[in-house]
Amino acid sequence: MNIPLRVLPSCRSILPYVFSGAVLLSARAYAQSGNPVFHVSADRPGVSTIPAHYPSLDSINRRIITLVNHHPHLARLDTIGHSATLKLPLLAIKLSDNAHTREDESTLLITALHHAREPAGMLAAIAVAESLLTTYPNSPASRMLLDNLAIWFVPVVNPDGYRYMHEHEFSMPWWRKNMRDNDGDGRMNPSVDGVDLNRNYDFNWQDGDGVQPLSWFYRGDHPGSEPEVAAVQKLALRENIAAGLSLHSYGEAVLYPWGNFYPPPDQKMIITLAQRLGQVMRKQSDGTAYRIWPLNGRAGQSSVWMYGRLRALDYILEIGTTWFPPVADLQRIEMQLWQAVEVLGRAVLFEGIGGHVLDAATGQPLVCEIRVQGLEAGYVAARVSEPVWGRFERILQPGRYTVSFFREGYQPYVRKDVKVNSGAKTNFTVYLHRTAGR
What we know:
Aminopeptidase, Immunoglobulin-like, 2 domains, alpha/beta
């Protein structure tokens, strides 16, 4: 469909609000309308057009394809879906030592550019993927990650929005949403069209902000309505993602799930890992750690969905101090993001419990719920084992736990006094027996 495009009006009244005065872990501190947001009312002085080092969408896609072609054994390119209006491909890159084989290994997911005016995360994600691939032969850290994990990158979740903004050379406040034709008139009307992709995820969507299409935080007409979001959710469920990062800008903060909702059962572990991420993601001004803030648990956001639906420990990184950081700042962010991915990977590989769930009679892998006593709640899903290998993992702090395994048609299995040491995952295999008559 050829959609005529109008010029986005310069309207500072729709800029993100400024969040202030929150106290860590206090749910009352969160604005009902969305995240704590650290943006100011204008971008860096002098930035009135998109800087030249933020390339077109076509250039970005060529860079991704070239990267995969140069590393055919370590990288695989998938099209996980297409965008809402322009039907552009949603490209995902899988990195692993055998990228074209589904191996018995845990998975990470790194996403970027949910919002069109936040391309720093897109470039940083691609740079980290490039670094992992090019340093793999000689870097013990790169080898550790790619030999033991599958790391998925979706650098451009919102290709429509980025192309729309980039090709029309918008200035402040740029563009945020996708290009969903909300009023159905076949034209792109920026006053009413578009959905905020990071308010469209299918967890507590009904409580989110942006009820009206004119809002820059418009959540869509139903959860997961946008094919961009549906594609990310499908990928995460298929790969049984264990942990992840969603890259946004700006504010120099690590946002974790969640506040303004019932406490997450894994809150202590979630915050501990958030603090580690903050220690490697350092502020530009003084080198201190990124701030740690809870996300709004009632806003249909990606990290909230990842935890609530998959029990994945997933974080939003608000990188940089502007929507379009200069080259020098980008390079610093990219190096720090590499460290953040390593922090996340090490947590999945070396902390908590892991292993396999098998049918006791046949040895076949089973999908089942893994419940840790004291760390479960009815308002979040249980972590499950994946279907191909029966592999499971839970990131846990050091301690002793009672772990139960449940699958319909099988006798529950309870393993008591499971000891988790610091820096060493506790691995074991569980054999489930069918119930009588099954």
